[in-house]
Design brief:
Layout: E1 18-26, H1 33-46, E2 51-57, H2 64-72, E3 78-82, H3 89-98, E4 102-107, H4 118-128
Parallel strand pairs: 1-2, 1-4, 2-3
Length: 153
Protein backbone atom coordinates (compact mmCIF):
# COMPACT_ATOMS: atom_id res chain seq x y z
CA UNK A 1 0.00 0.00 0.00
CA UNK A 2 1.41 3.41 -0.92
CA UNK A 3 1.31 6.51 1.20
CA UNK A 4 -1.23 9.12 0.15
CA UNK A 5 0.16 11.53 -2.41
CA UNK A 6 -0.39 15.08 -1.10
CA UNK A 7 -1.31 16.23 -4.62
CA UNK A 8 -4.53 14.21 -4.28
CA UNK A 9 -5.85 14.74 -0.74
CA UNK A 10 -8.25 12.34 0.87
CA UNK A 11 -11.63 13.37 2.17
CA UNK A 12 -11.57 13.52 5.99
CA UNK A 13 -14.12 10.68 5.92
CA UNK A 14 -12.18 8.54 3.44
CA UNK A 15 -11.35 5.03 4.67
CA UNK A 16 -7.58 4.88 5.12
CA UNK A 17 -7.39 1.18 4.35
CA UNK A 18 -9.59 -0.27 1.66
CA UNK A 19 -10.37 -3.73 0.43
CA UNK A 20 -10.47 -2.54 -3.20
CA UNK A 21 -9.18 0.56 -4.96
CA UNK A 22 -10.99 0.87 -8.26
CA UNK A 23 -9.43 3.24 -10.81
CA UNK A 24 -11.54 4.67 -13.62
CA UNK A 25 -9.56 6.46 -16.35
CA UNK A 26 -11.63 9.08 -18.16
CA UNK A 27 -11.39 11.30 -21.20
CA UNK A 28 -14.52 13.28 -22.07
CA UNK A 29 -16.94 11.04 -20.16
CA UNK A 30 -19.13 13.80 -18.65
CA UNK A 31 -22.26 12.17 -20.04
CA UNK A 32 -21.39 8.76 -18.58
CA UNK A 33 -19.41 9.17 -15.37
CA UNK A 34 -22.34 10.10 -13.12
CA UNK A 35 -24.18 6.92 -14.18
CA UNK A 36 -21.04 4.87 -13.49
CA UNK A 37 -20.73 6.41 -10.01
CA UNK A 38 -24.44 5.85 -9.34
CA UNK A 39 -24.01 2.17 -10.23
CA UNK A 40 -21.00 2.04 -7.90
CA UNK A 41 -23.15 3.47 -5.06
CA UNK A 42 -25.04 0.18 -4.98
CA UNK A 43 -21.91 -1.96 -5.13
CA UNK A 44 -20.22 -0.04 -2.34
CA UNK A 45 -23.33 -0.10 -0.14
CA UNK A 46 -23.55 -3.88 -0.55
CA UNK A 47 -19.98 -4.57 0.59
CA UNK A 48 -18.84 -5.10 4.17
CA UNK A 49 -15.30 -3.94 3.43
CA UNK A 50 -14.47 -0.40 2.25
CA UNK A 51 -13.92 0.40 -1.41
CA UNK A 52 -12.45 3.56 -2.87
CA UNK A 53 -12.94 4.81 -6.41
CA UNK A 54 -10.25 6.91 -8.05
CA UNK A 55 -11.27 8.73 -11.23
CA UNK A 56 -8.20 9.70 -13.25
CA UNK A 57 -9.23 12.29 -15.80
CA UNK A 58 -6.92 13.14 -18.69
CA UNK A 59 -7.86 16.85 -18.85
CA UNK A 60 -11.26 16.30 -20.42
CA UNK A 61 -12.70 19.29 -22.25
CA UNK A 62 -16.34 18.33 -21.62
CA UNK A 63 -16.46 18.96 -17.86
CA UNK A 64 -15.89 15.38 -16.69
CA UNK A 65 -13.78 16.54 -13.72
CA UNK A 66 -16.50 19.01 -12.65
CA UNK A 67 -19.12 16.26 -12.73
CA UNK A 68 -16.90 14.10 -10.49
CA UNK A 69 -16.24 17.02 -8.12
CA UNK A 70 -20.00 17.52 -7.73
CA UNK A 71 -20.45 13.82 -6.96
CA UNK A 72 -17.70 13.81 -4.33
CA UNK A 73 -19.77 15.83 -1.84
CA UNK A 74 -21.80 12.82 -0.70
CA UNK A 75 -19.25 10.12 -1.52
CA UNK A 76 -16.17 10.18 0.71
CA UNK A 77 -14.89 7.10 -1.13
CA UNK A 78 -14.63 9.01 -4.44
CA UNK A 79 -11.30 10.60 -5.39
CA UNK A 80 -10.29 12.60 -8.46
CA UNK A 81 -6.96 13.08 -10.19
CA UNK A 82 -6.80 15.43 -13.17
CA UNK A 83 -3.77 14.88 -15.37
CA UNK A 84 -2.55 17.54 -17.78
CA UNK A 85 -0.74 16.78 -21.02
CA UNK A 86 -0.67 12.99 -20.79
CA UNK A 87 -3.52 11.16 -22.48
CA UNK A 88 -2.77 7.50 -22.08
CA UNK A 89 -5.25 5.01 -20.67
CA UNK A 90 -2.76 2.57 -19.15
CA UNK A 91 -0.67 5.33 -17.55
CA UNK A 92 -3.87 6.85 -16.13
CA UNK A 93 -4.70 3.53 -14.48
CA UNK A 94 -1.18 3.26 -13.03
CA UNK A 95 -1.40 6.86 -11.76
CA UNK A 96 -4.54 5.93 -9.84
CA UNK A 97 -2.94 2.80 -8.45
CA UNK A 98 0.05 4.83 -7.22
CA UNK A 99 -2.18 6.66 -4.74
CA UNK A 100 -4.49 3.73 -4.01
CA UNK A 101 -5.14 2.55 -0.45
CA UNK A 102 -6.61 -0.81 -1.36
CA UNK A 103 -5.36 -4.29 -0.68
CA UNK A 104 -6.69 -5.15 -4.16
CA UNK A 105 -6.38 -2.93 -7.25
CA UNK A 106 -8.92 -2.81 -10.05
CA UNK A 107 -9.84 -0.75 -13.06
CA UNK A 108 -12.85 -0.26 -15.28
CA UNK A 109 -13.94 2.05 -18.06
CA UNK A 110 -15.85 5.25 -17.39
CA UNK A 111 -18.44 4.63 -20.08
CA UNK A 112 -20.36 1.63 -18.66
CA UNK A 113 -18.83 -0.78 -21.17
CA UNK A 114 -17.59 -2.75 -18.17
CA UNK A 115 -20.71 -3.63 -16.15
CA UNK A 116 -20.32 -2.53 -12.53
CA UNK A 117 -22.30 -5.60 -11.46
CA UNK A 118 -19.40 -7.89 -12.42
CA UNK A 119 -17.45 -6.50 -9.46
CA UNK A 120 -19.84 -8.23 -7.05
CA UNK A 121 -18.80 -11.64 -8.34
CA UNK A 122 -15.13 -10.69 -8.57
CA UNK A 123 -15.14 -9.47 -4.96
CA UNK A 124 -16.83 -12.70 -3.85
CA UNK A 125 -14.03 -14.68 -5.51
CA UNK A 126 -11.42 -12.49 -3.84
CA UNK A 127 -13.09 -12.91 -0.44
CA UNK A 128 -13.15 -16.70 -0.80
CA UNK A 129 -9.36 -16.53 -0.99
CA UNK A 130 -6.72 -18.58 -2.76
CA UNK A 131 -6.52 -16.14 -5.70
CA UNK A 132 -3.84 -13.71 -6.77
CA UNK A 133 -5.74 -12.21 -9.70
CA UNK A 134 -9.38 -11.87 -10.69
CA UNK A 135 -10.20 -10.66 -14.19
CA UNK A 136 -13.32 -10.19 -16.25
CA UNK A 137 -13.37 -10.92 -19.95
CA UNK A 138 -15.81 -10.47 -22.79
CA UNK A 139 -14.47 -13.65 -24.34
CA UNK A 140 -15.42 -16.19 -21.66
CA UNK A 141 -18.16 -18.72 -22.19
CA UNK A 142 -21.48 -16.99 -21.63
CA UNK A 143 -20.08 -13.49 -22.17
CA UNK A 144 -21.84 -11.07 -24.48
CA UNK A 145 -20.29 -8.56 -26.85
CA UNK A 146 -23.24 -6.18 -26.98
CA UNK A 147 -23.34 -2.43 -26.57
CA UNK A 148 -19.65 -1.91 -27.25
CA UNK A 149 -18.33 1.04 -29.19
CA UNK A 150 -17.13 0.25 -32.71
CA UNK A 151 -13.45 0.15 -31.79
CA UNK A 152 -13.94 -2.45 -29.07
CA UNK A 153 -15.49 -5.46 -30.75
Amino acid sequence: MLENDSRYPLSPHHPLDCHLSLTIPTLNEAQNISRVIQHLDGLIASQKKPIEVIVVDDASTDGTADVVRNLQGTRPWLRLIVREGDRDLSRAVVEGWKVARGEWLGCMDGDLQHPVETWTEMLERIDRGHVDLVMGSRFLSGSKLEGLSGGRT
